[in-house]
């Protein structure tokens, strides 16, 4: 928790600085781009274990993300317990059955067909880790009083992107799952009312026979996602 006496502006010298030549920057940027092109979302996980320290390091990387007023309005609940994973799967599949039974609407279901998803989510038990991302609507000072968090969806989205990148960099595959509603996760994981679960990230090593949907490899070209105004 933060105390009120910490809430003052005190500038310090930039502690870390990168000063690459233009050519080196280009090399680094292209190498990172190529590494991220090897990131794949998978639904077929191996039960091979992943050390807790790897998950902790990746979450710590996510915690470096920028956030509104530096409030860092996120919490990550990492689950390896088979019993808890089974309960998460059961609750998530209950919501998913309603989704596929008509709650989603025909257009949404049609859009999902090329991805090959169903209400069955065995990966929620097979993957060695589930990381549940919570967005904190408000925080508390050390004296218990509440303070408002700002730009919560944007901040949590940036942190989650860093988490997915860190997991890929560590050699792991991921699958983001967003059952709706997800309130059951607060109760299962003992998280307070102020926190809203935003997604479940299953992560681990892909199985030997893992596949990806062909359509998932179709990415928009650069000229469709970038506008440059020199």
TrEMBL record:
Keywords: Flavoprotein, FMN, Oxidoreductase. SUPFAM superfamilies: FMN-dependent nitroreductase-like. Residues 37-205 form the Nitroreductase domain. Pfam families: Nitroreductase. The keyword Oxidoreductase applies. One of its GO terms (molecular function) is oxidoreductase activity. It comes from the Bacteria. This is Dihydropteridine reductase. It comes from Maliponia aquimaris. The lineage of its organism: Bacteria, Pseudomonadati, Pseudomonadota, Alphaproteobacteria, Rhodobacterales.
């Amino acid at each position: 928790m933060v105390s009120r006496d910490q809430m003052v502006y005190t500038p310090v010298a930039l502690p870390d600085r990168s000063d690459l030549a233009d050519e080196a920057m280009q090399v680094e940027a292209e190498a990172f781009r190529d590494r991220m092109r090897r990131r794949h979302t998978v639904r077929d996980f191996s039960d091979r274990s992943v050390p807790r320290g790897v998950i902790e390091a990746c979450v710590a990387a996510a915690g470096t993300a920028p956030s509104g007023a530096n409030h860092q309005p996120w919490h990550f609940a990492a689950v390896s317990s088979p019993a808890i994973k089974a309960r998460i799967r059961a609750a998530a599949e209950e919501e998913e059955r309603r989704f596929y039974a008509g709650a989603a609407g025909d257009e949404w279901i049609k859009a999902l067909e090329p991805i090959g998803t169903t209400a069955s989510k065995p990966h929620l038990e097979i993957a060695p880790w589930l990381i549940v991302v919570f967005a904190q609507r408000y925080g508390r000072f050390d004296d218990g009083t509440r303070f408002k968090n700002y730009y919560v969806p944007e901040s949590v989205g940036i942190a989650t992107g860093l988490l997915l990148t860190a997991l890929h960099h560590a050699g792991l595959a991921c699958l983001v799952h967003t059952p709706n509603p997800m309130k059951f996760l607060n109760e299962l994981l003992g998280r307070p009312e102020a926190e809203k679960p935003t997604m479940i990230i299953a992560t681990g090593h892909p199985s030997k026979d893992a596949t990806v949907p062909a359509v998932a490899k179709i990415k928009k070209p650069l000229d469709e996602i970038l506008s440059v105004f020199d």
